[in-house]
Amino acid sequence: MLLAVMATLALGGWGLHVMQVQFRLELANRLGTGLDAMAAGLETWRSQRVREVQGWAAHDEVVAALDAAPGPGRAKALNHLDRELDFSCHAMGYLGYLLLDAQGRVLIPAGAPAPEAAEEREAVGAGRPWLTHPFLGRVQDLPGTERPLIDVSAPVRNARGGLAGVLVLRMPGDALSRELAGGQPGRTGETLAFDRSGRLLSDSRFEDQVRGAGLIGSDPVKDRALLQLVLRDPGGDLVKGFKAPSAPGTWLLTRDVAQAVAGQRGEDLDGYRDYRGVLAVGAWRWVEGMDLGLTM
Predict the structure, then answer these.
(1) What is the pTM for the complete model shown?
(2) Which of 154, 158, 160, 275 is most deeply buried (CB count within 10 A of its CB)?
(3) What gap in Å lies between CA 209 and CA 26, rounded to an integer?
């Protein structure tokens, strides 16, 4: 009887081990597949936005206004185009627009600053389409207020195929967050995007916790994790009151972010600390086409 009991326990233990292994394999597969699907969805979203702006950049009125010789005729065409773009952009959910000449000077709206990001200026100068990471900027409707923006730009070609200018449409900076929102795993998981420095390019679903831990400012309107929070490991659970002995700027990047930035993809089912110091399981990868990392 004793041998029978021992055999039963051994078989039960082996069965439990097999179930645990199977569960881990299924979870790793689910995380990896979900992350790949999210990356593919972001690439599709980016392509759609770029094609949208390319369609506008090829519009006859845009080409004609840029191709016209300087003078009253061109000024009239630009004024008409200014009104058209203002109406259409807002109807399509964009916040604003810029029309630049081939030298990168803003033609409309009058007085608007040129794009500031180095990568965007390079793309504009080279005449290639571009979708930026979120950045802090201003739009003409709120000239004195900085807010997160994303620029989508496309070259305008004249009838001879030469670069006549560049059209830039500006969307809300949390548009990327909205694309990621559908991939939030469960009630406590989240899918985040970040740049090569580990800076958050999307919203955190734990904004209140991050604010309470002092990782971002206390103003719930002005201070957001988006663009302000760098995904670093505090060394302990901040939600449970852990006090890090050093300043946040000295903390190392979280394991998932550090590996993704290094070009490695993977998953951790044993648990690693996230940016709140909370133990998490997840998967990560770098999305070359958008030059950003994803972690889920």
Answers:
(1) 0.84
(2) 275
(3) 31
Q: Which residues contact 189 (CB under 8 A, 6 or more apart)?
A: 280, 282, 296
pLDDT means per 10 residues, the chain with 296 residues, are 62 58 61 88 94 93 89 92 91 91 89 77 78 87 78 91 92 92 73 97 94 90 91 96 93 97 93 95 94 95
Distance CA 164, CA 94 (A): 23
Q: In what order do the strands lie in the sheet with 292-295?
A: 192-194, 292-295, 279-287, 266-273
Are 204 and 198 in contact by the 8 Å Cβ rule? The answer is: no
With tokens 């604003």, the residue in question is: 96
Where is 106: in which H helix or E strand?
Answer: strand 106-108
Residues 166 and 156 sit within 8 Å (Cβ to Cβ): yes
Query: Kind and range of the H or E element at 89?
Result: helix 72-91
